[in-house]
Write a structure and sequence with these properties.
heterodimer; A: alpha+beta; 12 strands; 48% helix; B: alpha/beta; 14 strands; 33% helix
């Protein structure tokens, strides 16, 4: 079976496979590729223009093909990956030479658009929503220094994907870089389709409650991370820059803050810290105060809470969990749903359900306030992953408060602090400040 | 395989710990806030059969009524509370108790037992205020119930420092009463109240409490001076000779004490900063100062004489002799030394400003 037949056999289930013969100078050449990735007529035209412009007219086929592209071994194993990448294979059947040409490709990407999951007030509003090369191009525009390094890897055996490792050579700690590179090299056979697989590859803690990565759509955030000596990963077809390691200050700080006056920048960050504290502590505090330690409350407040809890059949713990779960459902639903249906869910969930739950005496008025405050506060955090960890910690505090009251709340806070203190990613403690590189005076 | 086994064991261990959590707590006897009654005031009187009668003033948490007054008689206070709790739909929780009111007869007979009981029991905050009712408690509480149209915690607000409290009112907590019983050198004053005619509560001055027993009474002007002595007189107003009123802004006390021939001597210096609020006639600043100093000195002197006679050291002057007397001698402070104490108070006032008065 010759190469042409075996290729046809291999791609027989792919309708977009083509194999046409064209004439280049004096040779009949087979052009092989995938219709969906290659603009065939334009590519053929370009090949013919190139060959007709050659001064020397009688070249051996190997020489000719070498001018047009990169020579490859004429066997299935080496050709198929190139075809899958969207390359064009030229095969001269008489001599058996074969080359892979970079064709004019079909345009399967859009133009650069505005970010969709993160919003900016003052700052560049382009985003990483495109294919990997465009994304790196965008990043390069933000990071114009010469020290930016982009290493390309192809990871995975069944579905190879290109994985880009980006860092600034003069900012990153050498140990961090070396350990990451070593992990990637050792794990190149693993598929990297999503973040969990990337975690696997890098040997990070899979069960961590704090996020190992920060993902951002905003090129300025990625550039800022590079400046701080962090590493940015880009996976093909994953429209986010994945920043490693993730530190606690990433919850509160982002690059756009530097576009505010300095005082406001610090005040806004303080506000985010307060937001995290409110989001984690307040529901637990409510449970502790209402069911176990009401003596902490001022008398007037105690009386008004008792008044609003009049006729509520459930203990505070059940009541809080009930409404919190409804809130989580609303949140999850409004993330999943298309933008046109989202507001309906918000309205039904927020207004109708909240109001009805109070009138039906299922929950108290105060709880509605507490939970609304909690939900809003947990959204002040930078980055969706960080907001998720804040949401998780809240439940630990609620459970401990329901059992041990104020003491449990306090113990829970200590436990959370200890847990965060214990977390490390690639040898960098989660609670460390972003002074991975001392040379940068604009850290934080 | 080995790793998997470790994970499994860890998982089982964690599961066991989680399962045990409910058993190590007291979470089965938790009552939510709406299932507790939060009495603000407790009234205690003695019946003719020498039993306690306890009144509880419970602000209502529903819209229809504002205050609930329950009472019960019994031999011990805890038993009475328990009995009330049994008969009510909610559990009586004394953690929010703010004021304990006893009637005058009971106070004269001695309250040592109940104060020790309060201080020992963990349900009642030792910060709870103490007051003495000038009238019978039945009358007092029924008046309160009649007047509590809008809010169930009038009395609480009356004593609340950022609501109704004035420096003319004594401010004594249970722990201070307890200290007065067990200390050789410390006695206290306790406000005397009754239900008022136009206002809800009227203050009748203060009772002098020695060893948990009411021994005498002082007026509200004298209470202000006593509070000045304790350093709590800020914003108290003093009227001089029916013509001028000054407001105390701050005060500072210094003491000098010594023993000579087994007789204690104490010289105190009270520095007051005042501001003039209003003035009739044409007194000069010097005159105001002189008269104010004379007035305060004479009031304090009078009060001192009175307490000396009753051997109740409400100014805690004995504290200044703790390094001159040994513990055996201190035991006799009230009986032996205090009546012989040579005490001179010197008052200096500084008129900080004349308020809004252009000419005096």
């Amino acid at each position: 079976m010759d190469l042409k037949e075996s290729l046809a056999e291999y791609f027989k289930a792919n309708a977009d496979y083509f194999n046409v013969e064209i004439r280049l100078q004096q040779y009949q050449v087979q052009v092989i590729g995938l219709d969906s990735l290659v603009d065939l007529p334009q590519s053929i035209a370009s090949l013919q223009t190139q060959t007709s412009n050659l001064v020397k007219t009688s070249l051996p086929p190997a020489k000719l093909l070498k001018i047009l592209g990169e020579l490859v071994e004429p066997n299935l194993a080496s050709i198929i990956p190139d075809i899958m990448k969207g390359h064009l294979i030229l095969l001269e059947p008489l001599s058996g030479t074969c080359c892979a040409v970079l064709p004019i490709s079909k345009n399967v990407t859009r133009s650069v658009s505005a970010p969709e999951t993160e919003s900016t007030v003052y700052g560049s509003s382009s985003s990483f929503l495109e294919d990997i090369h465009t994304n790196i191009g965008i990043l390069r525009k933000h990071c114009t220094g010469s020290s930016l390094q982009v290493e390309a890897y192809t990871a995975g055996s069944s579905h190879p994907k290109s994985l880009m490792l980006i860092y600034q050579e003069d900012r990153i700690k050498p140990q961090l870089l070396q350990s990451i590179q070593a992990k990637i090299r050792a794990g190149l056979h693993q598929d990297v389709q999503h973040i969990q697989q990337l975690e696997n590859m890098l040997g990070l803690n899979k069960w961590s409650f704090v996020t190992n990565f920060n993902m951002t759509e905003l090129p300025q955030n990625a550039a800022h991370a590079l400046q701080q000596g962090k590493v940015v990963f880009m996976i093909d077809r994953h429209p986010f820059a994945i920043i490693l390691p993730s530190l606690v200050m990433d919850m509160f700080c982002m690059k756009d803050d530097h576009n505010y006056p300095r005082t406001f920048m610090y005040l806004i960050r303080l506000l985010r810290i307060v937001g995290v504290l409110i989001a984690t502590i307040i529901p637990g505090l409510y449970v502790a105060l209402v069911s176990i330690n009401p003596e902490v409350l001022r008398l007037q407040l105690a009386l008004s809470i008792a008044n609003s809890r009049q006729d509520v059949p459930y203990p505070a713990f059940v009541e809080t969990l009930l409404l919190l779960i409804v809130l989580e459902l609303i949140l999850e639903a409004s993330v999943r749903l298309p933008k046109s249906v989202g507001p309906t869910i918000t309205m039904v969930g927020g207004i109708i359900l909240g109001q009805a739950a109070v009138s039906a005496k299922l929950v108290s008025n105060l709880l509605i306030i507490v939970l609304a405050g909690t939900t809003i506060a947990s959204s002040t955090v930078v980055g969706f992953q960080n907001a998720v960890s804040v949401r998780v910690f809240k439940y630990l505090l609620i459970i401990l408060s329901a059992i041990y009251g104020m003491l449990g709340l306090l113990a829970g806070i200590v436990v959370i602090c200890a847990y965060m203190g214990h977390q490390k990613s690639m040898g960098i403690p989660y609670l460390s400040f972003p002074t991975l590189n001392q040379k940068d005076d604009r850290n934080g | 395989m080995d790793k998997l086994a470790t994970i499994r064991i860890t998982f089982k261990f964690v599961l066991l710990l989680v399962a045990m959590v409910p058993f190590v707590t007291g979470c089965w006897d938790i009552k939510d806030i709406n299932h507790r009654s939060l009495p603000v005031i407790m009234g205690i009187s003695l019946t003719e059969e020498n039993q306690y009668k306890v009144f509880l003033d419970i602000p209502a948490t529903n819209e229809t009524s504002t205050v609930n007054i329950v009472s019960e008689t019994g031999d011990t206070i805890n038993k009475i509370i328990d009995h009330i709790s049994m008969n009510m739909e909610t559990q009586v929780d004394l953690l929010h108790l703010k004021i304990v009111i006893v009637d005058k007869n009971f106070a004269r007979n001695g309250m040592e037992d109940i104060i020790s009981a309060f201080n020992r029991s963990r349900d009642i905050s030792s910060k709870t205020l103490f007051a003495i009712s000038d009238q019978g408690l039945d009358q007092f509480f029924s008046d309160m119930a009649a007047k509590s149209e809008h809010s169930g915690n009038i009395i609480y607000d009356f004593f609340e420092e950022n609501a109704g409290w004035n420096p003319q009112l004594a401010d004594t907590r249970i722990w201070q009463m307890f200290r007065s019983i067990h200390s050789y050198t410390h006695d206290v004053i306790v406000p005397i109240i009754r239900s008022g005619r136009s206002t809800s509560i009227e203050c009748m001055g203060s009772a002098i409490i020695k060893n948990g027993r009411m021994t005498g009474q002082i007026g509200s002007d004298e209470t202000l001076v006593a509070n000045a002595f304790y350093g709590k007189s800020a914003f108290g107003k003093v009227e001089i000779m029916d013509s001028t009123t000054v407001q105390i802004i701050s005060n500072r006390l210094t003491h000098h004490s010594w023993m000579k021939n087994d007789k204690p001597y104490l010289r105190s210096h009270l520095r007051l900063k005042v501001t003039i609020l209003d003035s009739r006639g044409h007194l000069t600043e010097e005159q105001i100062k002189e008269r104010l100093e004379a007035l305060l000195t004479s009031r304090l002197d009078q009060m001192f004489k009175k307490t000396q006679k009753e051997q109740a050291d409400i100014f805690a002057l004995g504290q200044y002799f703790r390094n001159h007397l040994n513990r055996e001698q201190l035991r006799d402070w009230r009986t032996t030394y205090y009546p012989n104490l040579d005490f001179k108070l010197h008052v200096t006032t500084i008129i900080e400003n004349r308020g809004n008065l252009k000419n005096l």
